Structures are given as C-alpha cells and as structure tokens.
Amino acid sequence: MLKGAATTMVHAALLILSSLVAGTLQFQLKHHNNEELLQVLQDVNSRCPNITRIYTLTETSVLGTPLYLIEFSTKPGHHEIMKPEFKYIANMHGNEVLGRELMLKLADFLCEQYMSGNSNIQSLIEKTRIHLMPTMNPDGWQLATDTGGKDYLIGRTNNNSVDLNRNFPNLNRIMYSNEENHLDHNNHLLAQLTRLKEPLQPETKAVIRLIMQIPFVLSANLHGGDLVANYPYDESRTGSQKDEYSGTPDDETFKHLALAYSTHHSDMANPTRRGCGDVDSNRFGKQGGITNGAKWYSLAGGMQDFNYLSSNDFEITLELGCDKYPPTKVLQQEWDRNKEALLNYMWQSHIGVKGIVYDNVAKRGIANAVIHVKNITNGKYQDIQHDVVSVHDGDYFRLLTPGKYKITAYKDGYLPHSRIVTVTNPAHSSAQRVDFALKPISVPPYVRIQSNSYADLDFDDKYGDLQEAWTNWINLNREPIAVQ
Ligand SMILES: [Zn+2]
C-alpha cells in the first residue's frame, strides 16, 4: 500500500515534470494575474508555434504593464490577401473581468482544437486572422482585484482615473455634422478631427494605432454588468442621454451581428430570463438579447463607434453578465454559456462580399479604392452611406446581410465599375468573391511599387488628407513588437 502510494506520487511528479519539459501546463479556468496571463499566452504559443504569435502594442499601461495580444493565423505576423482580420478586446474596464478569462480560455481552446484536428476550428483559422487581447486595462484589473473585486466602479478606469471607453476621439459629432450638411464623407473620419476633449491615454493610443495598422473587418469589445449585445451607435444624434435609437447606415448588418452572438449564447436571447437590475431590466432578453447603444444610454468617446467611423471595422460591445467580477467557481459555466457565441461571432467575418480592386491594364491591386453599396433588395434603391476602402494589395471586405446589392468601386484616375450581386451568406464559408477591374482614364505615367504599409498608400483627393492625419495622430511606422 505504501509502495502503491509512492508509485502514484512518483507518477504524478513525472507527469508534472514532463509537461514542464514540453513547456505545457494544463490550462485552468481561474482569475489569472498579469504575469500568469502572459504565461498562458506563451504556453499556447509554445504548443501552437505555427499558427500563433504574441505581440505587444506600442504603449504600455500607465503603470508600465505591456499590452499583449495573441494572434491566430496560418501566416502569423502578416495580412494575407483576402483573409479577413478579426479582433476581440476584453477587460477595458479593469473591474469587468469575465472577458479576460474567456479570452485566455479561447486561446487555449483554439490551439488545442486546431492541433487535435477539429475541422471547424481548422477551417476558421485557415480562413481568418484572429487577434485576441485579454486585457486593455491591466492596472484597473490589479486595483479591482486588490480591493476584492466587489465594487461596481473601483478599477473601472485606468491608473490616471480615465474611463478608456470615453477616451477615444469623438468621431460621431463629425459624422452627424456631415449627415446634416449632406457631405458624403462617411468613413475614415480621423482626417476631419481637429481637437480632442481630453488627452489620449496610453492604452487608448496603443489601441488606436492597432486599429489603424491592421485592416480589421469585425471585432467585439467585452464588458460586464449586464447581459446584452450592444451595437452602434453608442452616442445619440441629438445629444439625448437615453432612449434615442441611433442606428448606423449598416443597421441591418449590425443587428445581424449582435444576434449572431446573443442567439448562440445559452440565455442572452432568452425572453423569460431575469434582467440584471431595475424592474424593466429584462427587456433585453425580450428583444433578442440585443440593443442599440444610444437607445440604452448615450456615451461619447467609446471604442465601438470609433472603430466604425475611423476604419473599415465593424464593432459591437458585449455585456457578458450581471456580475462584473464573477467568482472562480462559475468560470467553467460561463465558458460553456459563451463558447458557441464566441465562435459563431468570429465566423461573421465572412458575411457579405470580398475581392480585389485592380488596375486592368497594369494588372496590380489598387489600395484605398472606395467601395460603395446600394441595397436593391425587393425593388429598394437605398444607398448605404458608409463606404469601405480597399487595403494593402487592393483587397476589400464588405460585411452585408443576405439580399441584392449594387456595388461600385471608385478610384481617382479610373472609370468606376459596378456589379450587381446577390448575397446569401452560407454558414462557415468564405465571403462571396466579387472583384473589380478598373480601367485607367489615362495610362498612369509610372506604376508605383506598393509597400505593405499603410504609410505608403497612394491616397486619392477625397482621402488625401487622411495620410497626414494618420501620420500625425498615429505614428504609423512602428510595427507591433513580437514577443516570444
Ligand atoms: Zn464596461
């Protein structure tokens, strides 16, 4: 018996030793501190070196903690032509911690399932470049944790007491003024920004650079305190504090995206579930688990609206539960409740159309061409007043719900080209490919060599000032630093 116990102990010790040698430790759902967070990412990276990369943003938190992301891709470190880019950012409010642990579990899960041959996960990673940022506010997390994680507000802000989800440049006011003045400038609005309400915090600056650098198509921002998928705009058009539905030109697509999360969560969209607070707080369940941001309450300077108005990215905000700092014992259950929703939402990077805009004489991609969409479903003839632009090598991505559309690609110096497209969005497959061959109005004198950096993009007149704005605000030349 004694011998048996000793053998078991030796066995256990050997198991731990062998897993240490292999660089792998069994992932555990618990609250990981800022050092353990990096260890989990490094462990995932060591198990899945060919499909992951850890990188840090250009700034640290106020207290000097690096801001880490892990990327999943078949070509880590690179944008691949026609492969959509996706991101999840969690724990922006330091005391809202469930998203942080879900991101670590998701990283572990994607690696494990890819390696064990789960064809759905393999297909997702082969078709999509995925970026996960477990915490945008490690300082707030530390304060919330050190003070017991029970307070509704302690740890919410960064270490300068600034709410990061109010610190982004307010592009809504620019957009709403353009709408009133019938100006067609409806995207990449940083160029029009002339002043900031308050200085940008390092965490905000770091994420703005990320948004400018990587051509994201879809993202979500993970919070806690309620249970609902919230879609743009967050800031109301009139300035009203609440109850004012303020939809974007992509309202149909955003509702679809929010529902893609809520209806795959175990009870976000359950109409009979209990709400989080006041008497009428169960209304979110009754409306499919989704809400327009400004209809709930209006906020200015949020990250969600900034993504949509400064880049090609579509972002929603996920409130993952009533309890902002849930106890360790419910983390497994929370993973089970959110897992399918997290995966289904990432797959939405593939709805709509994508393709290449290219010069049909020089046979090369055209960066920064404007893609404009008109919804012509059932005899409608409705312009969607939010254009996306083509990226690096002329590839573009345009999220759309099923229907019939007239899509036009424009670029100065070329004849516009329109195509009629029927979008069906079959599940788990890449977006339908629609290319645009643009004919030069006159033969260009010399075809510039295209670089892979946004800083070298050839901007047309409409977006001519964009480059200066980006350079001034964003200091584009710094690549995220790889950490191994
Ligand atoms: Zn929050």
From TrEMBL:
User: In Gene Ontology terms, what is a biological process of this protein?
Assistant: peptide metabolic process
- Entries under Pfam families matching the protein: CarboxypepD_reg, Peptidase_M14
Q: Localized where?
A: Secreted
Entry GO terms, CC: extracellular space
> Is Glycoprotein one of the keywords?
yes
- Gene3D superfamilies recorded for this chain? Carboxypeptidase-like, regulatory domain (2.60.40.1120), Zn peptidases (3.40.630.10)
Organism domain of life = Eukaryota
Q: Which SUPFAM superfamilies match?
A: Carboxypeptidase regulatory domain-like (SSF49464), Zn-dependent exopeptidases (SSF53187)
Any one GO molecular function term: zinc ion binding
Location of the Peptidase M14 domain: 30-349
Q: Which InterPro entries does the UniProt entry name for this protein?
A: CarboxyPept-like_regulatory (IPR008969), CARBOXYPEPT_ZN_1 (IPR057246), CARBOXYPEPT_ZN_2 (IPR057247), Peptidase_M14 (IPR000834), Peptidase_M14_domain (IPR050753)
Q: State if Metal-binding is listed as a keyword.
A: yes
Q: What keywords sit in the KW lines?
A: Carboxypeptidase, Glycoprotein, Hydrolase, Metal-binding, Metalloprotease, Protease, Secreted, Signal, Zinc
Q: Which family does it belong to?
A: Belongs to the peptidase M14 family.
User: Any idea what this protein is called?
Assistant: Peptidase M14 domain-containing protein
Q: Which source organism?
A: Zophobas morio
